[in-house]
Amino acid sequence: MNTTSLLAQLQTQVQQLKASVTSEFLPLEIATLNFKPHATSWSILECLEHLNRYSRFYLPHFAKALAAAPTLALPQPVRYSWLGKKSLDMVNPGNVKKHKTLKHMNPHNSQLTAAVLDEFLQHQDTLLKLLEKATKADVNKKTIPVEFFRLLKMRTLEAFEFLVMHQQRHVQQAQRVQAQSKQPISLVV
Fold it and tell me: Which residues form the DinB-like domain (predicted)?
C-alpha cells in the first residue's frame, strides 16, 4: 500500500467515526451517556474523553510535523517501524486483549458532560484537515513522539494510523456500553 491510499482510507474511517458518534451518541440523554455496565468499566463519555485526551496530545504534534515535512509529489510505499507495528497491534479494534491505560489518560469516575461529544467531533474535523495536508508531505519520517515515552518517535503516517485505530477501538467499546444500557436489569433474589 502507498501513503496516498492509506491516508485516503484513514480519512474515510475518521468520517465514519464522526458519523457514528453524531448519529448514535449525540441524541442520547446524559444518564445514558454516563451509564456504566460495571463499577470498573467506562461510560460512553469516559470512552470518548479518553480519546479526547489522546487527541489533545497528538494533534498538535501532527500539525508541527506536517509544517516541517518536505513536500512530496508522488506517493511513497508505507513503511512501519518496530514500534509502529507494536503500537498498531495493541490498539487494533480486533485485538480483544485489554490494556491498562496511563493514569493521566484514564477518565474513570470523571464528572463529564455532553461537551465531551462536541470536543470529540471538533478533534475529528481537525484530524481530517491534517490528513488532507499529509497527502502532500513525507509522512514516513519519525517525527511524532509517543505519548507514554516522548523520547521514542513514530513515523507520522503510522502515528496517524495508531490514532484512528485507537479511536475505532474505543468507539466500539462505547457502542457496546450503549447496547448494554438498553438491556433490562434483572435482579437475582
Answer: 27-174
20: nearest Cα among 178, 135, 126, 132: 178
| Sign of the torsion angle spanned by Cα atoms 52, 20, 22, 161 | positive
Whole-Å CA distances, 34 to 31, 68, 160: 5, 41, 29
State pLDDT tens for residues 29-40: 999 999 998 888
Nearest of 107, 131, 108 to residue 119 by alpha carbon = 107
Write down the residue that cell numbers 506517493 correspond to.
Answer: 75
Q: Are 123 and 59 in contact (CB under 8 A)?
A: yes
Q: What is the pTM of this model?
A: 0.90
With residues binned 3-state (H G I as helix, E B as strand, rest as coil), the percentages for the chain, rounded to 5, are 60, 10, 35
Q: What is the CATH number that goes with domain 3-181?
A: 1.20.120.450
Question: In the block, which residue shows the cell 505519548?
Answer: 147
Give 47-58 pLDDT, tens digit per residue: 999 999 999 999
